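Would you mind writing out a protein's amino acid sequence and the numbers that encode its backbone to help me picture the idea?
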Amino acid sequence: MSYTTASIVIHAEKFNTDVDPRYRIYLDNQIIIERVYWADHTDQQVVENITFKDDDQQHELKVCSVFEDTGNFFVKNVNFIDGDTNYDIEVLHELNQNTVTFKTARR
């Protein structure tokens, strides 16, 4: 079975400059990542690469703040990469602020 990598660019709007905000990434309503947003939110962004089996299923990735008083998170962009060739591929998807919905095609 083949696989696809979703490369998501995450941007933070920090509310409190003394405390770095934490974010969680959920895949189909299950937490898969929790991290501190270490980047300087003015000119740096964080890229997370998440790998999926090409299972012909609908998936949802959602980025949320762990503590809402420290910042908000947004998905700025998403690219999909073929796991076999390492080239960008077209995957129909919907991007809505902090959520990406897409379907991996069985290949």
